[in-house]
Amino acid sequence: METQKSSTGLKVGLGILLVLFLGTAFYTSKLYTEKQESEKTLTTEKQQVMNDLNNMAKQYDEAIAASEVKDQDLVDARDRIQGLMDSLKVSQNSVNSLWRYKKKFLALQEEMDELLVENDRLKVENEYLATSLDSTQVQLAERTVFTDSLLVQNTELTTVVEDAAALQTVGLVGMGVIERSSGKQIPTERARRSDKIKVCFTVAKNTLTEAGDKELYVQVIDPNNNVLGSNDQVQFEDQVLNYSLISRFNYENRNLNICEYVARLDDSKFEEGRYKVNVFNDKELISSSEFTMK
């Protein structure tokens, strides 16, 4: 009887142990399955966060590339995203860890929205400023052209006034003269009998010319192309003028008759032929005439 009871108790104990073992195995299997599913979900969500961060980084790169002026705020924000991506790659797959990264991602997303809005606003302002600058440059160019035109006109007007104010001579004549001991002069066409060559001209009235002491260069050239008189030289920049005499006078802005004389050299006679007389105001030839002595 006791043996039968002992056998029954053993069977019951074995049954309980079997039930416990099967329950433990089922529970363990369920936990493993749930863990696998949880890790899979965490891996998927981690990859999603990584993809979102990649997209944000690309948006920053595009904004930086489109900006003519490097925006340091955009660069710094992109660097923060890159740092978060590097940290996420080596992080553990846990709910707490992933939640922290999601919070950081959301904060960066909000920051990016604000920065991109500000960047767009600055781009619009820069485009407006560039348009305004182009308009200003066009106006400056037009003003420069106008100013240059005025300068050219002013220069031309100054040249016209200077030309108009220059001394002019009229009625230039040359002739041989016989000079008596009394001082009386007798015009002659005979070269051998001439004591001097007389050159006369009128300095014309010109109210634009400044009154005062003036001088003109008189040049008398004989038939042999020799410059008579003093035959001195005066230099005007790259031009040299040989002259017979300098006619000096006081000009009072009205017609002024002037006569000058070129004497023959001692023991010499004037040559027969055509003589040429020129009058220069500085280097400018203002009057010319010819006469013949026989």
Automatic annotation (TrEMBL):
**Transmembrane stretches, start-end:** 12-32
Among its keywords, does the record have Transmembrane helix?
Answer: yes
Listed name of the protein: Chromosome partitioning protein ParA
Keywords on record: Membrane, Transmembrane, Transmembrane helix
